[in-house]
Amino acid sequence: MLTMNNINKTFQTGDIQTHALRDFNLTVNEGDFISVTGPSGSGKTTFLNIAGLLETFTSGQFLLDGKDIGNLNDNGRSRVRNEKIGFIFQGFNLIPDLNLFDNVDVPLRYRGFNAKERRQRIEANLERVGLASRMKHLPSQLSGGQQQRVAIARALATDPRFLLADEPTGNLDTEMAQGVMSLLKEINGQGTTIIMVTHDADLAQQASRTIQIKDGRVSELEIVAQKAIA
Amino acid sequence: MFSYYLKIAWISIKRHWGLSLLMITAIGLGIGTAMTTVTVNYLMSANPIPHKSQQLYYVQLDSWDVNDPYDDGQNPPDQLTYTDATNLMKAKKAYRQNVQAQAYGVIEPEEQGALPFMVSARANSADFFAMFDVPFIYGGAWSNDADVNKEQVIVLSREINERVFGGENSVGKAIRLDGNIFKVVGVIDHWQPKPRFYDITTGAFNESEEIFVPFSLIAEEKIRRSGNTNCWKPSSDGFAAFLASECIWTQYWVELRNEQEKQDYMSFLNAYVEEQKRFGRFQRPLDNRLSDVMQWLENQEVVADDAKMMMAMSFMFLAVCLLNTIGLLLAKFLGKAPEIGLRQALGASKATLFSQYIIESACIGLAGGALGLLLAQLGLVAIENLYGEYMKGLASLDANMMILAIALSLLSSVIAGIYPTWRACNIQPAQQLKSQ
Amino acid sequence: MLEIGLIIRALLRNKIGALLIALQIALTMTIIVNAIFMILERQQQMERPSGIDENNTFYLTNTVFEQDYNLQAALNRDLAMIRKTPGVVDAIQINAIPLSGGGWSQGLQTQPGEDQDAIGTALYMVDEHAINTLKVELILGENFAPEDILWRASGQTTWPAKTIITKAMAQSLFPDDWQSALGKTVYITQSQPIRIIGIIKELQAPWNGWDGVERSILIPYHMETTGGKYFIRTEAGRRDELMPIIEKALAESDKGRIIRRVSTMEETRERSYKRHNATNKILTTVIVTLTLITSFGIVGLAIFSINRRTKQIGTRRALGATKWQIMRYFMVENFLISTLGIAIGCIGAVGLNMWLVKTFSLSPINIDLIVMGIGILFVVGQLAVLYPARKAALISPATATRTV
After folding, report:
1. Which among B64, B83, B311, C58 is least surrounded, fewest beta carbons within 10 Å?
2. Which among B204, B209, B237 has a CA at the least distance from the CA of B223?
3. What's the average model confidence in pLDDT over B146-160?
4. How far is A217 from chain C (nearest CA, A)?
5. Is-contact B367 B404, C-beta < 8 A?
6. What is the pLDDT of residues C99-143, one digit of tens each?
7. Does a cis peptide bond (omega within 30 degrees of 0) precede residue B109?
8. Can you tell me the distance from the alpha carbon of B47 to that of B294, in angstroms, rounded to the nearest whole number?
């Protein structure tokens, strides 16, 4: 469902050109749970940003559900993000001014659902992460793990085809991290494709496929599908 | 989606209430100040008789000293001599014509024990009332014959009619003015053109007169004239000599219904001056003018310099307030960079974000506009109190001004919001999402 | 200072924010300097002395309406009655009141003839009691004698033989030596001779906006008029008590006239300068609000920039910066922005003044005021940034180690 062919990304800072990705190739299949590891500065985040249509790439081909993403304008890219992709961040990135309900509401508004549909989805997804009772709370009133669960509810509310998670457990202690991880596995089990960037080897092991990025290339690809929660 | 933007704007304004309040106050003060001065200027330059201001013309002839031109040669004299005014009246070449001067007198009520009192008067021609659309309650104007025959007739203002006759229909009754008996022919309703265009020489914002009598009675010394008199050539003693002198003290208006009539009248005036030149008068070059109401007000600079200066300054004031708002909005929106990045990740396009932040700016602008209206109202009350008589009736907001205030505040806030919004929308989402 | 380069580089990275504040300061300075200038100019105008004893004088208008009224007899009777009222120092009939806005003017010229330049002057028709009643100071020459006072009929165009003029008028007529005016014959209404027998120090004309307001002359006339004015000076402190007494005495002594508009010179001055006063109050309000708005703008933006840099400031503190060094950073930053704003503001202030001079014929601005404006805005800027700078100094060094 996601194919990257020879993707290149270069940054120009002054006279220096940095290659963040070089001839990057990757194919992701429906239902995959991929973990992406690599040392810092290897291009992990760039890969995730390109996959999430947050950044454009310099050259190459990027197909999503068979559709070429390279020539979409800002509006088109926004729509794809909204409809097909859910994001989970290391810093949770909840909007501090909005309560949980309104936070989950954000992508639904951009989709243009009616009030009833939005309410159903918000309640169902907060229920799913176990925070339905705290809908009116502000993010600052929650613990880190709870905040990340809200972020997951928000990412799932639009029924995305796949989730992009950037160090989702980076700011959490081990216990909370494991909680979030099992939630992700559960979601993957229900059919959502997940790409997760992490530097935690233990977590990476729990994915069905692990790839490692080094110097902007996929240097190694280990399939551990059968090892995961079948 | 609009209601969602409103909701988000409201939450954002509420959460950063100190900052929002600062911006609303800044816009409010700017709009309030600007509106106060704009209103004063607007009312000062208002058209007092919109439906026929282009048919009423003020007549100027250059009868002044050949050695020392009037107004340094910029404009012909602002009034006419008695000789010229009466000659033009006799010629009767316009559709309607009116010669007038300010006057005053003492009325002695019949009633026992009632004290005599001073009244301000206008000595004018019969056509005055029809030309300037003066509203009558009882009776009407005197006839043109009354002017010619110097009849002692009088038109009273509503207030004087109430004072002397208790407000009843006094047409046909007698009233004693400066020891002479006058017959009441009409009573007019409250009438106060702003500016009082028909006689700028005695103050564009003064009150209209309390009584009106035929101009021809001045020569009979049945009414005492006041107002401005300006002379350049010495004359001999006595009132008859004064009337025949080159002193200017009368104002002359004509009503001309179309361009043709105007041109004809101009030719008539030129011919008249050429004829007078043969008697040794009008030694200066031909400079006759016909100014319609708005041209005349403009020419006489009815809008006070102070008012114009204040307006210029208040717009600079508004500019400061806008710069202030731009700065604060910029800080606020850039402070929201992580949220903006996130919203982009969740599917908001730049256009969507642009709408959202412009709506937030507009909300602040609207609130500022409402505050500004309130402040403008207060400002106008203050101006009226500070300036007294001079600004009376010039300090009120009408519907036009209110709409202008709201439009101005919306426009200013949107202008103030555009740059910060544009900056906010160009935030790279990827950079904002990594760390918080 | 070592920091300045650093601060400038930081500012350049946030050009627009700094520029916005600088522009605000510039506009504020432009307006404030000109507004202060306008206030001072008006104040100077208002402070010019009228030359008369304003505290103890009042006047009233006497409007005769009865037919066949003996104006001469009535005037003599009225003046005698007022002058002998206890508490009254002296009284005169006069045709116009200084500062009141309404009066007579004429031209005087040193040579007769239609083509000679005449100098405009206000004209006061009074008798020999004028100098005492107005309490003007006769600095040269002599007062009118009782026999100098002539009757002036309504519409009369001839003039008496003598006049007393103000020093300012003498200076205008004889710019080389004003004292030489005494005893000279000048010409009124182009050709009638009139001799200057005295010079008084000052007496203002009725029109405060006229540039010749210091020029006036006294003409020895009693007027036969149905609309005359009486001007009265009382003993110190007795004015208010005597006003109703004299009004009543005049009104009751004669029913063929109306006594009205009894007003004091103090009221006249207030009315005369009402618009000046009003404009000054408004300008003061503008200055104060504008300064406040600009300071709040500075405070608001400084707080935001500090909030954004919390972690950076914490790190600096952790690396050993003292509280004062943190405060100083923001104060120097404000000083730099202010300098830019004030530099633009100087140009703006002069530009606005030039426009005002051109459009409304105001006078050109004084350099002192610009210097004052510079001072004011630097102080305002530093004061405004004090609070946010203190807030920044209070940021804990521990902020540096916090991750989220």
Report:
1. B83
2. B209
3. 95
4. 30
5. no
6. 988 888 888 999 998 778 889 999 999 999 999 999 999 999 999
7. no
8. 7
Shortest CA distance to B182 belongs to which of B194, B193, B173, B192? B173
> Residues C123, C129, C133, C138: is their CA dihedral positive or negative?
positive
Length of chain C in residues, anyone? 404
Instruction: Provide the residue type at C154 as one letter.
Output: S
Closest residue by Cα to residue C281 from C31, C35, C34: C35
**How many Cα atoms sit within 13 Å of C228 on the Cβ side?**
26
Return the amino acid letter for C396. S
Q: Which one, of C206, C79, C174, C180, lies nearest residue C132 by Cα?
A: C79
Q: How far is C10 from chain A (nearest CA, A)?
A: 18
Residue with tokens 């105001």: C362
Q: Model-level pTM? A: 0.80
Q: Using the Cα atoms of residue C77, residue C79, residue C83 and residue C87 in order, give the sign of their dihedral.
A: positive
Side-by-side strand order, sheet with A16-28 = A16-28, A2-13, A59-64, A67-68
Q: Does C356 touch chain B (CB under 8 A)?
A: yes
Cross-strand bridge partners of residue C60: C230
Residue reference for tokens 């004509």: B254
First CA to last CA distance, chain B:
28
Q: Most distant CA pair in chain C: distance in Å? A: 105
Q: Which of C290, C299, C356, C358 is the best residue to mutate to test the B interface, defined by the most B CB atoms within 10 Å of its own CB? A: C290
Going by C-beta distance under 8 Å and a sequence separation of 6 or more, which residues neighbour residue B204? B44, B195, B196, B197, B297, B300, B302
Bridge pairing between strands A2-13 and A59-64: antiparallel
pLDDT tens per residue, range B25-71: 999 999 999 998 888 888 888 889 999 999 999 999 999 988 888 88
Q: Between chains, do B428 and A55 touch, taking CB under 8 Å as contact? A: yes
Residues 6 or more apart in contact with residue B58 via CB below 8 angstroms:
B251, B252, B253, B289, B290, B291, B292, B293, B296
- Interchain pair B349, A166: CB under 8 A: no
* CA nearest to A32, candidates A164, A133, A131: A164
- Rounded Cα distance between C201 and C196, Å, is 14
Chain center to CA of C261: 25
Which chain B residues are Cβ-neighbours of C259 within 8 angstroms? Answer: none
**Virtual CA dihedral for B326, B332, B337, B338, nearest 10 degrees?**
-170
Query: Which amino acid type is present at position A228?
Result: A
Count of other CB atoms within 10 angstroms of residue B355: 17
Q: Does B4 touch chain A (CB under 8 A)?
A: yes
Q: Write out chain A's pLDDT in tens, 230 residues.
A: 889 999 998 887 777 888 888 888 888 988 899 999 888 778 888 888 888 888 888 899 999 888 888 888 888 888 888 889 998 888 888 888 889 999 999 889 888 889 999 999 999 999 988 899 999 999 989 988 899 899 999 999 999 988 999 888 888 888 888 888 898 999 999 889 999 988 888 888 888 888 888 888 887 665 554 444 43
- Which DSSP letter does residue A194 get? E
Instruction: List the structure tokens of A67.
Output: 């559709």
Four-residue CA torsion sign, C284, C289, C290, C296: positive
C316 CB neighbour count, 10 Å cutoff: 19
Q: Is the interface score ipTM higher than 0.90? A: no
